[in-house]
User: Fold this.
Amino acid sequence: MNHQRSQTAKHIAKFIQINHAGELGALNIYRGQLFVAKFFYPNAVASLKKIANQEQNHYQIFGLWLQQHTIRHCDGIFIWAWGGFLLGVITALFGQKAMWTSTNAIESTVLNHFEQQLNYLQQHDTATFKMVQRIKDDEQQHQQCGAIHGSDSMRYIPLSNLAKGATKFAIWLSIKLAH
Ligand SMILES: [Fe+2]
Ligand SMILES: [Fe+2]
Assistant:
């Protein structure tokens, strides 16, 4: 029984390590997009700032959880930070529509990831479940913002796939690096 409990705790700790790194990645994606938007799409700056602030808040919430459970951050965290910024800049340079289409793709991938975790957390840890659920609600808003301002035109499919692929790869890498 104790063994099972410690396995569950390890599992959940790994989830939060991955989410913590991912939120830093997300924060940096929006920082990268903001960097470009300040020059080319000033009308998008307010929305991007609002989203970036929420990502920062998510990053802090998961960071606090790790601190309280005396668990160190994921080893891959700096890859996420730089990779996120780069992905943000690249997607924004393709144009404003492309940028928001990428937001839709990235946040959809994040939502899938959270949903899988929530299924597990619901059965094993109510407090952590609620924490992730609240954050997931924000991600849903980000995804919707991307869907509203983006486009489902065929021409954005390659970029959308690139954004999705990069996000999936980052999640996969974090799972490997979390311990
Ligand atoms: Fe987030
Ligand atoms: Fe988000």
Summary: The chain is about 85% helix and 0% strand. The helical segments are 2-40, 45-68, 77-93, 96-124, 126-149, 157-177.
